[in-house]
Design brief:
The chain has about 375 residues and is an alpha/beta fold. The chain has 14 helices and ten strands. The longest helix has 19 residues. Bound molecules: 5'-deoxyadenosine and FE2/S2 (inorganic) cluster.
Amino acid sequence: MVQDRISRLIQQKEFSLEELCFLIALEGADRDFFLRETGKHYIQTLGKKVYFRGLVEFSNYCTKDCYYCGIRKSNSQAERYDIDDEQIVEAARFAHQHNYGSLVLQSGERHDTQFAKRITQLLRKIKEATNGELGITISLGEQSEDTYREWFNAGAHRYLLRIESSNKELYYKIHPEDENHNFELRLNCIQTLQKVGYQTGTGVMIGLPFQSIEDLARDLLFFKELNIDMVGMGPFIEHSNTPLYQYKNQLWPLQRRFDVALNMIATLRLLMPDINIAAATALQAIDPMGREKALRYGANIIMPNITPTLHRKDYTLYENKPCTDEGADDCSNCMNVRVCMNVRVEMAGREIGLNEWGDSNHFFNRQHTKQ
Ligand code: 5AD
Ligand code: FES
């Protein structure tokens, strides 16, 4: 009975809020059925290709104070670092040589002009060092339209800026309510990125304190309404040096957060078949096979961390982050990275799109319908 309903829903293209809530909240055997059937449907209709992005978290200096984040400016325990441009360019060369289609540059948020200029130069250097062949995604927070434009012109073509929660009230429970953390501003930034011409990605955390299943269903509708090209979303993982840690006893158990995160990915795949969905690293912090499971049920992007290792452990947005130990899966200098990732992707029943940028089809469909 329930499974008949699920089978019918998988064939649908439009979903009501109630239907989304139903899918996101599934548990037990019904959930297993939903994930399995969605995975099958997905591969039959959209193919098996998975794309790689080499992730470089080049600095954890941050001017903001999000209540959930381990690198927030008030966390005096965080060991701050900023990797030299030469080393970043080296990581980009590594990604290029190992046939990653593309690179993601991420850091804490800064608004000074020195930072903006540095990024512009850095983007040019990376383009030059990789023959213009490596795609570049950046994730550097809220910036002015001019800065977004400058970076776009210097070679970045995708941008990730998570809304974190599309519920404004919840947003202000997880961020300070001040001029530096403004919901409308963040929303405007996402729209500005689209206007400038970036393939634009956003996302949310799943299992935040005070968050309901309905909030999550509305997050999915928000992505659709904004016509977003890429989504990265993963479970919230409490960090002991952050204000949200005080609610740790009110959170869903980690396993539930993980399960709901996979349900969200599978449901979003039905709602927006042609977007790029990342298998978030936070999934792997809960389950060693977390990212592979995400690939099986709807994600098509994986982002191996290629941050030079010396500082890897300092980019701790949340605790128990995978691959932060010395000697653990270190992808930055690991000659086996391709083998390791091949195996992981194949275990998920998928195939690697080698040397392809793996742009979001949604972006091109969106451009096309505009004309
Ligand atoms: N748990 C899970 N994800 C987190 N992020 C930041 N802190 C946490 C946390 N404690 C996510 C945010 C941010 C992205 C870079 O990492 O969604 O946008
Ligand atoms: Fe750095 Fe949120 S704490 S952007």
